[in-house]
């Protein structure tokens, strides 16, 4: 568009408020030929402007519309005569254009709800030959497609960022699981190493107990002999010596000490056995297992953490053996039990229930702890979600449990809670035989169905 509007042209198709005039009193008359040339030039110019797909409007310094192009008149669905002379605000309203904020340093976004289009409006100053401001030309360039493409790109970016986050979490989870597996192996190795010395200490203590019995018998018989054959002074001397060396006390205390040592060694043996059972390195794969036994082994391991916090009540139902990864399930139960103990402030109760129903094994672990806030229920199984102090909680216990139960065993793990009353975690494991697992050596067994929370 010529920025200096022609004040004399005959109107072409573009609307113009400037009436063509042949001459004015102060201006010399224009001959017919010149007039025709001017008119043609104006027609050409306006024809050109009408070819432009962008909307164009020219306003004077008061914001009154002097002309607009065909694209604008089409959008407004009105003849030029009805648009020229309107204030710019009225014109935009007539065209159904709504301001929608800035879209650049010098431009504003306009939406056209009727068509769903979006325009970018730029204002250019119009000056006369002396450089005086005569008004402005506003252009409206349609940016609907660009905006849609930008939004698509934004969405893709968000998806990509989400996938990256998920990848990071999976990586951390894998690392954690590997660490746990390594700790399990280490524990099993240590247990194995302890077994040997514990074995010979037990055996030696047994022998020592026998020796002590013999020594005691010898002293008794010696005393009887003395009583029979020795004279009074020798008997008194022997009694004195016996007292001096506290033989009676030594014999009875040595017996007590040996009994305590044997009890202690028995306890070490039990701990070693529990450790071995818990880590089950010899069965670090899928096998047929009894879930009640898994719970018992886990309780034995977690006992030190639980005993000061809670009374543990067990209601074990009768369960069929199921094809599972016992080492992993022990990890799930351990995470749930430790969480339960940590939720109890002073002392409370942890109830473990198991039962068999509709081809599935159900396990619930209920505590009388502080409970879970409703807004946290949906986030429990997210990796790194924790309400515990830094260094106390990693936020990975439940996400690992979810992984093992849902993804590795095709089961479900859910949580419910009344804040202040306690929480219940429910694990559902489909009962499977070796054939159903589709993989006898481990790996993914289930379809991964099941909700994470209620
Ligand atoms: N028995 C429970 N009672 C109350 N809140 C629980 C219980 N179990 C889990 N939670 C909540 O779930 C969060 C995540 O648990 P978890 O994944 O084991 O991570 P962490 O124990 O390291 O915080 C905990 O921080 C806690 O807020
Ligand atoms: Mg935890």
Features:
single chain; 454 residues; alpha+beta; Beta-Lactamase; Heat Shock Protein 90; disordered N terminus; disordered C terminus; binds adenosine-5'-diphosphate; PAS-like_dom_sf; phosphorelay sensor kinase activity; EC 2.7.13.3
Give a written overview of the molecule.
The chain is α+β, with helices and mostly antiparallel strands and 454 residues long. Among the domains are: 15-142, PAS domain (Beta-Lactamase), CATH 3.30.450; 285-454, 2-Layer Sandwich (Heat Shock Protein 90). 50% of the residues lie in helices and 20% in strands. The protein contains 12 helices and 14 strands. It has helices at residues 32-51, 70-76, 80-83, 88-95, 144-229, 232-244, 247-279, 291-306, 326-343, 374-377, 397-408, 434-437; strands at residues 15-16, 55-60, 65-68, 98-102, 107-112, 117-127, 133-142, 287-289, 310-316, 322-324, 348-357, 360-367, 412-418, 422-430. The strands form 3 sheets. The chain has a 7-stranded antiparallel sheet with strand order 1-3-2-7-6-5-4, with helices on both faces. Strand 2 (55-60) and strand 3 (65-68) form a beta hairpin. The protein is rod-shaped. The two termini are 65 Å apart. The structure holds adenosine-5'-diphosphate (ADP) and magnesium ion. Residues 335, 339-340, 343, 367, 369-372, 376, 380, 385-388, 393-399, 423 line the site of adenosine-5'-diphosphate.
Short summary of the structure?
The protein is of the alpha+beta class. It has 12 helices and 14 strands.
């Amino acid at each position: 568009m010529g920025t200096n509007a022609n004040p004399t042209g005959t109107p072409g198709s573009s609307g113009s408020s400037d009436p063509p005039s042949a001459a004015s009193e102060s201006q010399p008359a224009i001959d017919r030929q010149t007039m025709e040339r001017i008119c043609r030039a104006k027609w050409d110019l306006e024809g050109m402007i009408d070819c432009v797909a962008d909307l164009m409007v020219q306003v004077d310094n008061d914001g009154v519309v002097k002309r607009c192009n065909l694209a604008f008149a089409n959008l407004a669905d009105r003849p030029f005569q009805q648009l020229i002379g309107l204030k710019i605000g009225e014109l935009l309203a007539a065209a159904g254009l709504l301001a929608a904020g800035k879209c650049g340093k010098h431009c504003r976004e306009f939406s056209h709800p009727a068509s769903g289009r979006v325009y970018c409006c730029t204002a250019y100053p119009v000056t006369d030959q002396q450089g005086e401001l005569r008004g402005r030309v506003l252009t409206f360039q349609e940016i609907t497609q660009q905006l849609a493409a930008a939004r698509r790109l934004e969405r893709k970016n968000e998806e990509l960022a989400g996938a990256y986050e998920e990848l990071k979490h999976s990586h951390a989870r894998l690392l954690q699981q590997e660490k746990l597996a390594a700790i399990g192996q280490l524990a099993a190795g240590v247990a194995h190493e302890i077994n040997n010395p514990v074995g010979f200490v037990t055996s030696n203590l047994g022998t020592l107990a026998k020796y002590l019995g013999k020594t005691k018998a010898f002293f008794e018989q010696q005393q009887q002999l003395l009583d029979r054959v020795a004279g009074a002074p020798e008997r008194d001397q022997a009694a004195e010596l016996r007292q001096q060396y506290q033989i009676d006390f030594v014999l009875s205390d040595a017996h007590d000490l040996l009994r305590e040592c044997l009890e202690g060694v028995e306890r070490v043996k039990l701990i070693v056995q529990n450790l071995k059972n818990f880590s089950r390195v010899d069965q670090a794969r899928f096998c047929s297992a009894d879930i009640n036994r898994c719970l018992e082994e886990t309780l034995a391991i977690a006992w030190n953490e639980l005993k000061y916090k809670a009374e543990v009540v067990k209601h074990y139902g009768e369960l069929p053996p199921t094809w599972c990864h016992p080492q992993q399930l022990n990890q799930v139960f351990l995470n749930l039990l430790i969480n339960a103990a940590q939720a109890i402030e002073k002392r409370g109760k942890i109830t473990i229930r198991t039962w068999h129903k509709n081809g599935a094994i159900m396990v619930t672990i209920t505590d009388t702890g502080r409970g879970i806030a409703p807004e946290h229920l949906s986030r429990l199984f997210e990796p790194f979600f924790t309400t515990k102090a830094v260094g106390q909680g990693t936020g990975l216990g439940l996400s690992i449990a979810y992984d093992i139960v849902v993804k590795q065993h095709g089961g479900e793990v859910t949580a419910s809670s009344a804040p202040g009353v306690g929480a219940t975690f429910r694990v559902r494991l489909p009962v499977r035989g070796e054939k159903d697992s589709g993989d006898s050596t481990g790996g993914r067994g289930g379809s991964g169905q099941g909700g994470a929370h209620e």
